[in-house]
Design a protein that fits this description.
heterodimer, A: 161 residues, mainly alpha, 5 helices, 0% strand, globular, B: 67 residues
Chain lengths: 161, 67
């Protein structure tokens, strides 16, 4: 199996993930902003564990770097050099490690929250949340389909790019 | 944007984020948000949305990375 065979799927998956990722960042960012602005409810809910607080900026920035460098490569190919390929790979490695810490740290509480969501029935608030999540996935699918309209100049040239 | 300025933006943003997270905060709550316990409705709604979106992303990424 050659890497270039996977590239079309890689581009589609990348675009599919952008809207759900934006929703996740917006939701988490909202909580962090309310906390730092001193909202009583969010202050009472408490901050994450220190390890998770410290890994959060690394996770957010590496996520942004993975997608920004990926979109740059999709748009311009290697016009601005192989460094963008290195940046994409390096940021993905950092993203993977930070994601591992993040997922393990939040797995228990997030699992409980998901169970509460399912058990909570079909309140208007729950429908709004589910609509947002499904909507982000639909927008991602549209974005992925729209990306097919552009013929990317990117060509994989081996380990060096 | 050149690679150099991209790298600089990433570096500065990470440093700023880390500094913000390290800033001393008064411990006003009885819990950390990874712990179980009652939450105010708006906070609980936000937590559920974050959990749902995170779960969706996790499933998508794991599924898509498995050939």
């Amino acid at each position: 199996m050659r890497v270039q065979d996977w590239l079309p799927a890689h581009f589609l998956v990348g675009f599919l993930l952008i809207p759900p990722l934006a929703l996740k960042l917006a939701s988490t960012g909202y909580r962090a902003a309310r906390y730092y602005m001193g909202n009583p409810g969010y202050r009472l809910a408490g901050p994450p564990h220190m390890l998770l607080r410290l890994s959060a900026p690394i996770l957010v920035i590496s996520t942004g770097a993975v997608f920004a460098s990926g979109i740059e490569l999709w748009l311009f190919g290697l016009r601005f050099g192989n460094l963008w390929v290195a940046a994409h790979k390096l940021s993905f490695v950092v993203f993977s490690v930070a994601t591992g810490v993040h997922v393990l740290g939040h797995l228990h509480r997030s699992g409980e929250a998901a169970v509460e969501e399912v058990a909570g029935g079909r309140s208007p608030e729950a429908l709004t949340r589910r609509s947002l999540v499904i909507g982000s996935l639909v927008v991602g699918a549209v974005l992925a389909a729209a990306s097919l309209l552009y013929a990317t100049p990117f060509q994989f040239l081996g380990d060096g790019g | 944007m050149s690679f150099g300025s991209f790298f600089l933006v990433v570096l500065v943003a990470t440093a700023l984020g880390g500094a913000l997270q390290l800033a001393p905060l008064p411990r006003v709550g009885p819990r950390q948000h990874s712990e179980s316990g009652p939450l105010m409705p708006g906070v609980a709604a936000n937590e559920r949305l974050t959990a749902l979106t995170g779960g969706l992303l996790f499933v998508l990424i794991v599924r898509l990375m498995s050939p």
